[in-house]
Write a structure and sequence with these properties.
The chain is mainly beta and about 150 residues long. It has strands at about 5-10, 15-30, 30-40, 60-70, 75-80, 90, 100-110, 115-125, 135-140. A 9-stranded antiparallel sheet has the order 5-7-8-9-1-2-3-4-6, with no helix packed on it.
Length: about 150
Amino acid sequence: MKGILKIYHPEETLKYNIKHTYCKAIYSNEKHFLEVEIVTDDSLDHVDDDSLHYNFPQIAFSVFDYLMEDGELSGKTVYLPDSEEEIYTQVELYDDEDAYLSDNELAFQENEDGELQLMWKGNIDDFYTASGEYIPFKLKCNFKSDEIVIEED
């Protein structure tokens, strides 16, 4: 497992396992830009039958075009100031619903194995019940490279 996303809805805490992660500081036109993608697993084996989670079995969070000082991520905390003029985050719900993030704080550090990991906390609008309120979330994941096994004939 690459990590976990927890959304603290007032009715229940929703837990998503992370399936895919991607993170890079991209160098373009003499500037560094942060790019992150976190995709959850669509398995519902760990979810109760009457959970809000069943309506949204998979979510993807991403960060794009955020200007960084340099290309080093480890040890940095980034605050993403999303506004109506500038948007750096996106949520994909894999259906026709829209969701938005706010108050994003991304803390990058290396774990004991020297792999980059991310602690991302913020708020997401309540797309589960469409209450119009923002609800908190926390995400923890690593960016360990997947080992690709190629079997020879």
